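BUG-447 | component: ligand-complex export | severity: low

The export step for N-carbamimidoyl-L-glutamic acid jobs runs without errors, but we want the raw record kept on the ticket for reference. Input record follows.
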Amino acid sequence: MPAIHAQSALLPAGLAQDVRIQFSEAGIESVEVGVRPYDRDERHRFVTPAMPNLHSHAFQRAMAGLAETRGPGQDSFWSWRTEMYRIALSMTPDHVEAIAAQLYMEMLETGFGRVGEFHYLHHDRDGTAYGDPAEMAGRIAAASASTGIALTLLPVFYAHSGFGGAAPADGQRRFIHDLEGFARLMDRSRSIVSALPHAVLGIAPHSLRAATSEQLQAVIPLAHGGPVHIHVAEQVREVEDCLAWSGRRPVEWLLDAMPVDRRWCLIHATHMTDDEFERLARSGAIAGLCPITEANLGDGVFSAATFRASGGRFGIGSDSNVLISLPEELRMLEYSQRLFRRARNVIADPGHSTGMSLFVEALHGGASALGVHAGIEAGRPADLLSLDLAAAEYVPTDKVLDHFIFSRGIGVDSVWVGGTKQVEGGRHKKRDAITARFIAAMKELTA
Ligand code: NGQ
Ligand code: ZN
């Protein structure tokens, strides 16, 4: 296995110079600091762990840029969702695989090394199960295998259209399971994941709108100790509906009724009271923030300062996949705080680089939410990112991540997953073939 030499690298203890990273089949074998490169070492300027992307709905990449025309009334999250359901109903397994491969390639090219696929497009277009109930999960796995991105598969349990067990809507027919059908999907998903290098299996009850309390109790054990993800408190209407149904707010209800702990990831959790921020932080659960999507859908602003002050952990996800960019997700997260609070450098402790704080916190929160550990040290996955500093030679090492996130001139050079290089010079090694297939699928879908 190869070794790389980094002029600078982001290690668990902070930035270090002259770092030699040796890969093995299992991951990072050794890390030496303050050493010269060996002749055969590949040389890089600035190396960090690759970033986990903790929340994706791959099929939604098909509507990126196609839902930005104003409708007859005031557009909202809910009018977007109607459009999204329409597209979901039109896609075949071949479309899903081609679109997911394009998406995962784009993720790798921007510096993500692992994706948490919150997967709920399960059934055929008429709502009947495929011969293989995990047909679509298999397509997601195939896209992960062909692009090389590491996968945390989160099969979604979805049964209802609203709080209190409301019957599902016809437009949701491809998402729906009963408990027996879902257990079969989990069994098949477990075998798919075990055949895929570096893959992890978790579970995702879609939301408190889509699963009852009894169903949540029944499906959580099917994760077998793996990650548990759920959408929560993204829209004000969801908070109001939850209050009307239970007398409690969604995050409050979850924390009261479910065993929320470090295995859990609460996606969005946008609308919380100070008490909910405090309790969520104490639970150890990750807040799964999706800043670009939350802006695109008009969700509101997560108060990251409040959450961090309580010791809360977060990671980032690209959710609707309207735009795939690691630096822009982190920038949007910080800028939404600045605009809302009329302040600067919000997601950092005094004396610390905001870019570095955003990067390191999203790295560890994201890895934890996806059931892995991140960091350049022996025994960790060899999932790495190397930045191209050629156009920014003058930038001091401790400001490289600030430049990458907030400015220009620094981009992605290489990305390795499990020690295999998938991106070089900013390009995925299979880009042309993957994009040709994606464009053919999109032409069919938009014809
Ligand atoms: C989803 N997406 O499952 O794709 C959701 C919309 C819903 C976001 N919440 C559907 N961003 O929440 O009902
Ligand atoms: Zn989502």
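Assignee comment: Attached the raw record above. The pocket of zinc ion (ligand 2) is lined by residues 55, 57, 118, 231, 267, 319 (CB under 6 Å).
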